[in-house]
Amino acid sequence: MYNRLTSLLGIKYPIIQAGMVWNSGWKLASAVSNAGGLGLIGAGSMTPDLLNEHIIKCGKATKKPFGVNLPLMYSKVEQQIQVIIQNKVPIVFTSAGNPAIWTQILKNEGIIVAHVISSVKFALKAQDCGIDLLVAEGFEAGGHNGREETTTMVLVPLIKKISSVPIIAAGGIGSGEAMLAAFSLGADGVQVGSRFAACHESSSHIKFKQKIIDLHDGHTVLTLKELAPVRMIKNEFYRDLEKVYSKGADTKQLKHLLGKGRAKRGMFEGDLDQGELEIGQVSAQFESIQPAEKIVNHLICDFNHALIRIQPIE
Amino acid sequence: MYNRLTSLLGIKYPIIQAGMVWNSGWKLASAVSNAGGLGLIGAGSMTPDLLNEHIIKCGKATKKPFGVNLPLMYSKVEQQIQVIIQNKVPIVFTSAGNPAIWTQILKNEGIIVAHVISSVKFALKAQDCGIDLLVAEGFEAGGHNGREETTTMVLVPLIKKISSVPIIAAGGIGSGEAMLAAFSLGADGVQVGSRFAACHESSSHIKFKQKIIDLHDGHTVLTLKELAPVRMIKNEFYRDLEKVYSKGADTKQLKHLLGKGRAKRGMFEGDLDQGELEIGQVSAQFESIQPAEKIVNHLICDFNHALIRIQPIE
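The joint structure predicted for all components is written out below.
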């Protein structure tokens, strides 16, 4: 085993595939787990029944450990947890919500529980709940994010300092070089989202995947801070948001414009103009849609090459 | 020589001390250069006469190379450049402005010219101007910053890919671990600002230095994006700005509230409530005010320790 993280999770490589809404079904999760990382099914976009189906299919597609990412803010979280427990999923990553309520319930079932945080305050709270792992997610990450806007470079060492549990760095990591950077900062592993969103096995629409590949720096933005901050592509929908903001929008107006189902419409159905396209800044670095296994292998290979390249300073 | 950056600049360690307004006078610059890094005098807060005085004093205080950081947006830039040329300063870091006008004038005098950028677009422009070095500065950095909000973790690899000149990473770097992270991402060196702002030799007010040490994550913000984006501490002045923003401020109102001399008032005169206190996110990591030499030695020592700690992944 490479380190305390891979030992705890029973995986070969310290690479976690982020459980992303509309991207991370059983195909992606099982492909990453089979490649030696940890695949996560993204429960945020699934009904309890659909989650059940994905867990069963994932278990048939891999003999390796896999997990579920569970946003805690949705109304069906209790039913989703029942599905997770019934299926004996060994690992759960919780996010977007209060870990105080569910952590011990999951742990009592022998489940390893990680929680995603974006600040020291929430890391301390999560530790108090008895969390096994912390995911320290920086400002550059795609999707839902913190209000403090602390970047991965700054956040990981802060969390390292106050934490006794293994730390997984997230945000801005889509290469072996960035993975090595995360380890330099004190991380025990990395969570990779955007790069897997644009991989063959992702369940998102091909138009969304191609859009991710075409992005440059400055093409994403952290917005909707008045509701729940989210990083997404600056598309036509975002321009509409900007117009509302320029007139001094209140949360009611923002909620009305956002409406329902925008994330599905964008990422799953491929409406690049009016959909909500959640992705990280790091997407500016990607050049092609690849299979998950190739991405995992590249990450490890480039990590090792970058490590050899750096010499001590005398 | 350690690498192409230290060779080009004639320095021992690939550490640049950022030339920060109201912080980086001859005392700080000479202390960092004497410690083996590259000290930069921050011309942005100096009249040409005062800059002349600081350059002469710095030259007396160190036999090692030092440079000047020159924001290009100020009205006295031509006179400042005359002072730099007359004093045969060997290295100039330009920032906040268009390098097209001044780069060749400086280079014709045999001066090595670096330019600070925050996006691929501006990096390409700077390269076209014949720049010798690029400073890739991420969103987390203190003071003036880019509009794209790209973090150091994401920006450095993007610049590395399109650049033929040595790259200095800036933003979020205040430790040897973060320095190693920057090298992992492809940087040839690092520019450290905040940590030197809070060091003994910084010319800023002791109250400002103590405030830096006391900061936690989430205590700084990138604001005034309608004028020139700047990262500063969320103090009383920032709360006043927020009030103006909440009413849908235009640039005229913002300029009026900002007024003149706020940065001096805050950082140099120690008005922590109503001054503009420019500092990076990384300040949340600092524990004490230290001498510059100790900081340089810590950076190198911790860089080497972090490098030894990381094992290849098999």
